[in-house]
Design brief:
The chain is of the alpha+beta class. The protein folds into three domains: 157 residues, FAD/NAD(P)-binding domain; 164 residues, D-Amino Acid Oxidase, subunit A, domain 2 (D-Amino Acid Oxidase, Chain A, domain 2), CATH 3.30.9; 93 residues, no CATH class. It is 33% helix and 22% strand. The strands form three sheets. Strands 3, 4, 5, 6, 12, 13, 14, 15, 16 and 17 form a ten-stranded mixed sheet that branches. α1 links the parallel β1 and β2. α1 packs parallel to α6, α1 packs across α9 and α10 packs across α11. The relative contact order is 0.15.
Length: 524
Amino acid sequence: MAGYKMKLSDINKEYDMIVVGGGINGAGIFYEAVKKGYRMLLVEAKDFAWGTSSRSSKMVHGGLRYLKQGKFLLTKAAVKERERLLKQYPGLITPLKFIMPVFDDYGPSRSSMKIGLSIYSFMAREKQHKSYTKAQAIEKIPGIRKKSLVSAVGFKDAQVDDARLVLRLIYEGCLLGGTALNYTKVTGIERDRKGHLAAVNVMDETSGTSVEIKTKVLINATGAFAETLHPSPMKGFHIRPLRGSHLVFPESIFPLDRVISFIHPQDLRPVFLFPWEGSVLLGTTDVDHDQDMEMEPFVTIKEARYLMDGLSHILPDLDLSLKDCISSIAGVRPVLSKKKKAASRESREHVVWKDKGLITVTGGKLTTFRMLANDALKAAKSYLPKPAVPNSGQKIKGQPCDEICQNGSKNVQERLLGRYGSFGCQMIRQYDKQLFSPIENTKSLWAEICYAAEYENICHLSDLLLRRVRIGLLLPEGGKKLLDRIETLCKPYLSWDNKKWNMEKKAYIKLWETYYSPPEEREL
């Protein structure tokens, strides 16, 4: 369990490379570098996947919309990475069907969609799209707006629990010999007489302990905060934080087996209604993030009304309102920009900056995190020593998961092995059979709560309920009524006394009400 419960005071004081930022980019760089044999440390000022990487649209997609922008190479690379991830992480990254209605009064035409999807399928090396007649579209999408409806197109992409992908990369990197710390902040960097990076100062946010750690490379993967460590060297270009917001509804209101993708009539942006973890999500927006960057982002009532207006336009007979919303979630995308374009037209391609051992990466897509990681490591190579023998990955294979059916169905095993890798086998063997039942109407299991508390660097209740498992987003009031049972289950694994538990529960409820509750409730 190397790296799972590490403290700053326990770690080495010298590394080949330090990654700052525990989102998908930092996790990907960390994992790829450890595999190459480098001595690695990852530090995250808040919790792993605290930022954008737990607040995305949960899609591993080929970037169909980038074809319209002429970004053929980006789309091709994303399609290739999507296929690789589907094979590498079954049970975590899963195939997902899309359907998009086509109208003759707005949005892309049937012919343009056919051309785009033909190119998309060609890049995937197999046909991944299908055409539907108007009658079939009405059958596939109950309640669809019939006025000006021409047809529909279907295509394939994939879906992920974004936070669990980040955590799996980090913890498997730790198992291969790396070290990762959450709630550990970089407070400064030291350079030698020639200006090369020599050391990094870090502080444990919980205890206040500070140490200096020697390294020749610091990779800044802090997303929207990148310029706090490394101002943009590109004249006129700066990080433009853009907010993407989602509303969460109970699955029972409109059960879905695929994503309904549609064009918003107001600004012709793509919007999605999609199934995820036993709920239905509606998103996303693309607006300048003008909220306090140090606080958690939240969905505004204006964004919520925008999403609901788009939904009511496409599904006019659907009896759904903000009163049905369970929760909301907003993430901040970092794009490098001169702020001369509309937010939705900004490039999502990543950039890499070098400054004598300080490497900054920003931008990019969740799907192509490995490409960004490899580009970052190429930029760092000239500052690094020759790595040790590359890790083959044998350590993370763990024991075979044969004869473990006693504690769950095949679906449970697929879920746990996908989300936890070889640790899923350990979970199945370790916990009582009764704990492998779902939590309320979600797909999360009580055993996952216990496992996270025992092994997954939990510092606050919000870490557990919003990122390790996602029931804080999937249950009314963030799962408030389950907090006492969660306390009982977790007490053997978390060294919190009754006072700490009471503080954490109150803090979690306040956090949820302030940043994750349905927007209309928050505005009152």
